[in-house]
Amino acid sequence: MSFALSLLLTGAGGLAYKFDREQILKPHPGIKYDFNDYNLHGLKRCFKESLERCETGAKNFIPLFRKSLFYPLKGMVTLARNKKLYASEVIYIQSVYCVMYFIILTLYLNTITPMYVSFLALLGPLGVMIATLHGLLHANLLTMMFMRMSHFQAKLVILTCKREPDVPIYPIGKPVKYYIPWNCKYFWLVYFPLKFVKYLYGYIVLCVLLVISALPIIGPFLFHFLVSPFITKIYFSKNLRINGVSNINRQNFFYDNLGSYVAFGLTAGFLESIPIIAGFMLSVNSMSSAMWFNDNFN
């Protein structure tokens, strides 16, 4: 039940971003040429772009990794120095987190934890302690999955951006979402099959990651380690959207700054693995992502 609720809310948050009304819809520029020429032009273009992304990501990985690893800690310092400015938003986000965590934890302790207790019964009282501790950590992981995808932090991100000197007041424009029209051959013969494979692959990967997260105690930490760049992607996406960056350029930005995404996500994910503190870190990491964006985005 706790898994189902968490995945349902995470999916709802993802759909809210995907179909956000605060964006401009335009046909994808990649379908201007005739479909019959796709094998000649489209595949070559995609292959070339993939190689360029790999080269750029590998070249910049180490410098960007070092530069971005401690940005979540910078967010803590900024919050400590400006408590009055951010207090109301941080308390609001923490309150929402605590309510959702309590709901998920209650469901988890009454459905999943008894299974762990039975598996670890041979360890006696120690097994019960391990099962309970894992329940606290795992319920927090499930809570954070959809809390990151929510819009509760949007105001805090904008507030942080406005405080930064020499930075334009947000937002400066609506992001463009390029789409593939469903009434063209390209959609049904190329785009739709590729999307189907992509989502099927994503579903399988998610199932594997959830199995890994079920490992007692270490599972939630290992889960956040493996998805670290995608944790950052969620945080940075808010800033990119506010700044009017299109979905295509957001994807390019991810590969161009892969080292930063991994480093930021490692620190953020580790700190968000700790229950209760995770709610506080949700605010801190939202602020830190805005600070990183202002320092590095051109």
TrEMBL record:
<keyword id="KW-1133">Transmembrane helix</keyword>
<dbReference type="GO" id="GO:0030476">
    <property type="term" value="P:ascospore wall assembly"/>
</dbReference>
<keyword id="KW-0732">Signal</keyword>
<dbReference type="GO" id="GO:0005811">
    <property type="term" value="C:lipid droplet"/>
</dbReference>
<feature type="transmembrane region" description="Helical">
    <location>
        <begin position="116"/>
        <end position="137"/>
    </location>
</feature>
<keyword id="KW-0812">Transmembrane</keyword>
<feature type="transmembrane region" description="Helical">
    <location>
        <begin position="258"/>
        <end position="282"/>
    </location>
</feature>
<dbReference type="GO" id="GO:0005628">
    <property type="term" value="C:prospore membrane"/>
</dbReference>
<keyword id="KW-0472">Membrane</keyword>
<feature type="transmembrane region" description="Helical">
    <location>
        <begin position="91"/>
        <end position="109"/>
    </location>
</feature>
<dbReference type="InterPro" id="IPR052786">
    <property type="entry name" value="Spore_wall_assembly"/>
</dbReference>
<protein>
    <recommendedName>
        <fullName>Outer spore wall protein LDS1</fullName>
    </recommendedName>
</protein>
<feature type="transmembrane region" description="Helical">
    <location>
        <begin position="200"/>
        <end position="227"/>
    </location>
</feature>
<feature type="signal peptide">
    <location>
        <begin position="1"/>
        <end position="16"/>
    </location>
</feature>
<dbReference type="GO" id="GO:0005619">
    <property type="term" value="C:ascospore wall"/>
</dbReference>
